[in-house]
Here is the input.
Amino acid sequence: MPQHPFDWIDAQHERQLAAGLVRTLRPRPADSALVDLAGNDYLGLTRHPEVTEAAARAARRWGAGATGSRLVTGTTTLHARLEENLAEFCGFEAALVFSSGYAANLAAVTALTGPPGPDGTGTLLVCDEGNHASLIDGCRLARAEKAVVPHADPAAFRKAMAAHPGRALAVTDSVFSVDGDAAPLRALAEACRESGAALLVDDAHGLGVLGEGGRGALQAAGLAGADDVIATVTLSKSLGSQGGAVLGPAKVITHLVSNARTFIFDTGLAPAAAGAALEALAVLRREPGRTTRVRAVAGELHRRVTAAGLPAVRPDAAVVSVRAPSPEAAVRWAADCRDAGVAVGCFRPPSVPDGISRLRLTARADLSDGQVARAAETIVRTAPAC
Here is the structure.
């Protein structure tokens, strides 16, 4: 008798259960007393009254959804204004908004490889091994040669690109989501320019946190607006909304409109999300101190947990990574923190490329000093024995 076609799922579930790698959904209430160090609301704008009112106003005017792809009916004047404002704020010539940061990264990587050159040689994608899953998936989907190089190693990028006779595109996060460390962007740009390669940077964790007034890691590195640099951002972290965007030279954005599959065939970003992101950008312009505050909170969390002897990576932006002895210990630690009133992220294989489980703490600009102290004390008190 033939097996059921999904019997393999049961076997995989048992293996994941034994390894402490089963993931579960936990719906959260609208209001919670937890100190939230798990979400990515870096600047505390998700519930900002002006941001939520802008979302509601956009929904009332434009409807609950975009109604279609951006090329059919899904583009509104809100989308156009958001693209203009994002490009101007971050220092790029043009921008294109997508329904998510994931979709933006898939678009940028797959559509910018291009056809083979006159000699038949295609584009080489050089990908940092610590990149976010969306960049990795983009590289996998792209019809291009690929090289995965050691984490944050400009020499490795340089070597891979120098060995390739055709075009190359270097792909990296600006701030890596697992440990919160920053990429050496200036050195990577220099390596790219030696080979005539382009540089694609996912600035999801840099926008709103790094650069002058939160203008991002590329602005801080002096690379914003360069004609050989492309950035992607998400609207769901510092801007408290949802969606993503690609920023770069105008001709690159024009190319994406006609060639990026996650733009052409996906429903446009909901008007409410576009309206919220626009208002969040306006708040950030008026209140640049939020950028300074979120970095200060991250530094204080790191100082307190390391002073207690816990192994944590020094944050380059808003993410503090605290290592756990095992996946099971990380899950239990996160649960103990939650029971004590503090929500933390729990990262474990296969989400972490090095196989090391962690608690991931995301700083927020709207946390009080008392909340930061309480959260750090809870994390230290509930820490498992190494």
